[in-house]
Amino acid sequence: MKTEKNNITGECFCGEMSYKIIQPLQDAALCHCSRCRKAFGGSGSYFSMVTAEAFSWTSGEENLQTYTGAEGWGIGFCKKCGTTLCGIYKDEIAGITLGPLNDDPDIKISKHLFVGSKAAWDDIGGDAPQYDEFD
User: What is the DSSP string of 10-51?
Assistant: First the structure.
């Protein structure tokens, strides 16, 4: 089901945490770097950038656990079920992962990042541009 582009919702696997986004999602990407593969247990991270002003928790914010690396980038996840919900940059939400979205936000992957370090078994399909590093 498609959702209103200005009323996007998502939630974690256990349902304890949920959020809403009040702006259309843009610049959806798939990052193939080794850090994203490890954090997400797959080919990488499907994500879209979002401003902190457009994002708000609707329930369960007290369950947010964060991990931030030395560069200031990190992830926010549910401490009960482990679902990664958002990307963190310098202690602010900078993006969301696409997997936890409740409905179709009517976006497509616009680019593949860090293709130069993708896993050998990762066969990228589609026609979105591919970049060896961050675009």
Answer: EE-TTSS-EEEE-S--EEEEEE--HHHHHHHTSS-EEEEE--
Tokens of 98: 């696409």
Instruction: Return the closest-CA partner of residue 74 out of 82, 83, 65.
Output: 65
pLDDT digits (tens, 9 = 90+) for 6-24: 689 999 999 999 999 999 9
CATH number, domain containing residue 69 = 2.170.150.70
Please tell me the total count of domains within the chain: 1
* Per-residue pLDDT at 110: 93
Quote the pTM value: 0.85
Domain that holds residue 31: 24-117
User: What distance in Å separates the CA atoms of residue 113 and residue 104, rounded to the nearest whole number?
Assistant: 22
Locate 55 and state its tokens. 């994002």
